Amino acid sequence: MRRRSEHLPFLLPALLVTAVIVLYPALQTVWLSLHNFVLFDPDNIRFVGLGNFADILLRDELFWISLGNSLVWVVAAVGLQFLLGLVTALLLNQSFWGRSVARALVVVPWALPSVIIGLMWTWMYDLNLGVFNDMLLRAGLIDAPVAWLAQPSTALGAVILALVWQGFPFFSVMILAGLQTIPATYYEAAAMDGATRWQMLRYITLPSLREVIATALLLRMIWVANSLDVILVMTGGGPGYATHTLPLYAFLKAYSGMEFGYASALSLLMTLLLLVVVASYVRRVAKAALA
Amino acid sequence: MIERRSRLRVLLEVELPVLLIVLFAVAPYLWMVLTSIKPNSAILSFPVQYLPTAPTLEHYQVLLARTSFLHNLFNSLVVALGAVVLGLGVSVPAAYAFSRFRFAGRSGLLVFFLVINMVPVVLLIIPLFVLMRQLGLIDTFIGVIMGHATFAIPFSVWMMTSYFNALPCELDEAALIDGASRLQTIRYVVLPLAMPGIVTTGIYIFVSSWNEYLFAMMLSGQNIKTVTVALQSFIGEFTVQWGLLTAGGTLIAIPVTVLFLIIQRRLVGGLTAGAVKA
After folding, report:
1. Coil, helix or strand for A245?
2. Is the ipTM value over 0.85, yes or no?
3. Does domain A31-290 have CATH number 1.10.3720.10?
4. Are the Cβ atoms of B118 and A278 closer than 8 angstroms?
5. Could you give the 3-state DSSP secondary structure of residue A242?
6. Under 8 Å between Cβ of A172 and A106
7. How far is it, in rounded angstroms, from Cα B128 to Cα B158?
8. Checking DSSP bridges between strand A46-47 and strand A35-36, what pairing results, if any?
9. What's the gap in Å between the CA of B238 and the closest CA on chain A?
10. Which residues numbered 101-140 in A keep a CB inside 8 Å of some CB on B?
């Protein structure tokens, strides 16, 4: 009854479209990265081999600055999103009045477009009219308004806080789902043996969540490392290069500089750096899904 | 947990922290909405005036009457619906094949769809721009929809595969034995049962496409600017008129917030399968 090629007509449309819009462009990036390709200078396209890569690694100070910022960006943003998400999930797993409303409201930041996230946080950080400065002044924590997004020492941290706000619901939803799969009998047995609540968290809850947490962390690292739109909207990479991350740098090279060859080389390098994380994530998910 | 905690401890250890977190989650949103209904005089006063004393809809009127915003809303709607149709149209059959047929290269292809969901946007956006330019698809609906399909397709393939996997194969087999063709089986047995999954996946594609900024900006020009691109360009054009900007932000945010709240519970399955884009 089952013909050998019965699956083909089902798969072909997805494969064809994907080949055109993902596979071909990805390969083209490799081609572009080996060329000097400035969009509005089409007569001057020439093969430069690995020249772009050599320029980036040996002569481009901005690449190293962006790489450093990217590391801070990923570690701080993902780390804080995770901690806040974990605490939120543990709290939302307790029983209290209004729990379902709280669970729904906490997810709100996740639904919003990054342009609006950038916009609302820029507005809150505003030097003269921002609610952030107003609250800190009223609380006596600062003496004069601070230009959070305009000074190099605070800009990256300020954008990271906006990203933590956007991303912690993802962790809390994932971890909450994980919490609900832990059998109540574990806790009953532990309580019988006189375990404290802290010990239950340490020896039952966290070990049971290990898989969920590892998957969520890897997934989130990949996306935070790739995400550039919130930064683009809030600071455009500035002041100076204080909030330049690798994807943003590559994007600006292409978008403002029109240097498509160089930008392609940058984004390829970034992809290579991410490959370790992507590989461990894919292995994990594929093993679970194909088992 | 067996342990009974006193009312006061629940209040201090659970309810108060929850309240703080919920406040943190909704405060920026509320602040945007509040700003959008204040007259300019109140927006421009410092120390900040927290609650509007004279709420007004003037920013919404200006936004809808004097800017291209309505047109941009329409563009976003077309793009998002297009992404849903294209994404579901090619992914549902593919997911059905992944779930129901065993063929050579099946796991390899599934992994392929997982990997392309991880490809950095910057890696795709540069050559896609070049490609769309060659094809003359810059500033067309098709161009932006194809850009959004780069994340819509891999996501839906994984989501739908896990939904189909949850439906027992015996259903298909029973229908096939009763003499239904493969297509009839799908049409009358599988699709109706998979409908909740299809709706969830479709809504998620819609929300992601509606929210998307980079592809929409790179691949659109004046004609089919989506709301996110338009809002961002207003920042320069109207020299930071916060009333207008927050009114626009509110109008963009409300539909996706509602849609997202509807589907969020059912997303978790796809999340753990790694399909959901942040």
Report:
1. coil
2. yes
3. yes
4. yes
5. coil
6. yes
7. 23
8. antiparallel
9. 14
10. 102, 104-117, 119-121, 123-124, 126, 128-131, 134, 137-138
* CA gap B106, B110 in Å, rounded: 6
What is the pTM (predicted TM-score) of this model?
0.90
Query: How many Å apart are CA B32 and CA B51, to the nearest integer?
Result: 12
What own/partner pairs with CB < 8 Å and gap ≥ 24 does A188-196 have? A188/B2, A191/B1, A191/B2, A191/B3
- When pLDDT is cut at 50, 70 and 90, the band that residue B2 belongs to is very low
Residues 6+ apart with CB under 8 A from B17: A87, A91
Residue B149: partners with Cβ closer than 8 Å, 6 or more residues away: A17, A21, B83, B86, B87
Across the interface, do A282 and B101 touch by the CB < 8 Å criterion?
Answer: no
Smallest Cα–Cα separation from A281: which of B273, B77, B145? B273
DSSP-derived 3-state class of residue A139: coil
Q: Are A194 and A232 in contact (CB under 8 A)?
A: no
Q: How far apart are CA A291 and CA A285, in angstroms?
A: 10
Q: Phi/psi zone of residue A183: left (φ > 0), alpha (ψ -120 to 50 degrees), beta?
A: beta
Structure confidence by residue, pLDDT tens digits, A209-267 = 988 898 889 889 998 999 899 999 999 888 989 999 999 999 998 888 788 888 999 99
> What backbone phi and psi angles, to 5 degrees, belong to A35?
-125, 155
- The CA distance from A110 to B263, in Å, is 12
Residues of B in Cβ contact (< 8 Å) with A18: 113, 116, 153-154
> Which of chain B's residues have a Cβ under 8 Å away from the Cβ of A276?
none
CA–CA gap between residue A194 and residue A164 (Å, rounded): 37
Q: What residues contact B5, with CB distance under 8 A and at least 6 apart?
A: B13
